[in-house]
């Protein structure tokens, strides 16, 4: 298995890059890709930049230019599911867009034309991560992760998302785009997110305080999985 690991921000990629060996850098479209190994596993690590277009484009490059056979999206998110707190970790069972509306053409809310409403994460990757979390005695939740090109920072915004997806555990700005690109190329994916905030009116301040720690926690899950 050759893993492509995609993070949006420097704070999210830092802990993973520190563990890489035999690293070689290359660039496409202004994006730097790091090829190397973590625990002797072949890895291509990349900071995509923020948002759906950046994430989808970078995922396609990982698959087409670097030949990765599985994609992991790692980083931070806003915890909007019941009982989630800053620092908690979520693994995606599936991913969806909350800011898409083609219902005028009889598509489901959040569904892009000619695409599924929900992009299903790979069960094998999900099981490997879940087992890694258990062996490390780390508590995680599994469920729906939703994506949109906005930072959620109010109860009003959360309620709008929950009206569309009552089961959503967390929201962020890249995951479903990674999932869509992986789906298009028939490459397995999973999303790992640590909560940097809970999407409330203090989310901006909380995010700034906890983004680095969230990046470390998300990375820890992946590093534990790669120890196998």
TrEMBL record:
Catalytic activity as recorded in UniProt: 5'-deoxyadenosine + H2O = 5-deoxy-D-ribose + adenine
What are the GO MF terms of this UniProt record? adenosylhomocysteine nucleosidase activity; methylthioadenosine nucleosidase activity
Gene Ontology annotations of biological process type: L-methionine salvage from methylthioadenosine; L-methionine salvage from S-adenosylmethionine; nucleoside catabolic process
Instruction: State which pathway it belongs to.
Output: Amino-acid biosynthesis; L-methionine biosynthesis via salvage pathway; S-methyl-5-thio-alpha-D-ribose 1-phosphate from S-methyl-5'-thioadenosine (hydrolase route): step 1/2
Q: Which Gene3D superfamilies match?
A: Nucleoside phosphorylase domain
List keywords of the entry alphabetically. Amino-acid biosynthesis, Hydrolase, Methionine biosynthesis
Q: What class of enzyme is it?
A: hydrolase
Q: Where is the Nucleoside phosphorylase domain?
A: 2-227
Q: Which domain of life is it from?
A: Bacteria
Quote the InterPro entries the UniProt record gives. Answer: MTA_SAH_Nsdase (IPR010049), Nucleoside_phosphorylase_d (IPR000845), Nucleoside_phosphorylase_sf (IPR035994)
Enzyme nomenclature, EC number: 3.2.2.9
**Keyword check for Repressor:** no
Query: Which Pfam families does the UniProt entry name for this protein?
Result: PNP_UDP_1
Q: Which GO terms describe its cellular component?
A: cytosol
Q: PANTHER family annotated for this entry?
A: 5'-METHYLTHIOADENOSINE/S-ADENOSYLHOMOCYSTEINE NUCLEOSIDASE (PTHR46832), 5'-METHYLTHIOADENOSINE_S-ADENOSYLHOMOCYSTEINE NUCLEOSIDASE (PTHR46832:SF1)
Give the matching NCBIfam families.
MTA_SAH-Nsdase, PRK05584.1
Recorded protein name is adenosylhomocysteine nucleosidase
């Amino acid at each position: 298995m050759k893993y492509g690991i995609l993070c949006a921000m420097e704070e999210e990629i830092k802990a993973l890059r520190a563990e890489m060996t035999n690293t070689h850098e290359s660039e496409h479209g202004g994006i730097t890709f790091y090829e190397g190994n973590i625990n002797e596993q072949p890895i291509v690590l990349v900071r995509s930049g923020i948002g759906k277009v950046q994430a989808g484009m970078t995922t396609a490059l990982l698959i087409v230019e670097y030949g990765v056979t599985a994609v992991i999206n790692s980083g931070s998110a806003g915890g909007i599911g019941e009982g989630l707190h800053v620092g908690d970790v979520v693994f995606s069972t599936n991913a969806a867009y909350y800011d898409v509306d083609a219902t005028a053409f009889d598509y489901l809310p959040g569904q892009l034309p000619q695409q599924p409403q929900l992009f299903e994460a790979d069960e094998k990757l999900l099981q490997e991560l879940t087992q890694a979390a258990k062996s490390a005695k780390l508590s995680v939740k599994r469920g729906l992760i939703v994506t949109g090109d906005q930072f959620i920072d109010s109860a009003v915004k959360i309620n709008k998302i929950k009206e569309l997806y009552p089961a959503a555990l967390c929201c962020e700005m890249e995951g479903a785009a990674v999932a869509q690109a992986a789906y298009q190329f028939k490459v397995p994916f999973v999303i790992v997110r640590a909560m940097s905030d809970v999407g409330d009116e203090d989310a901006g301040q909380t995010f700034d305080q906890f983004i680095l720690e969230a990046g470390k926690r998300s990375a820890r899950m992946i590093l534990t999985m790669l120890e196998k």
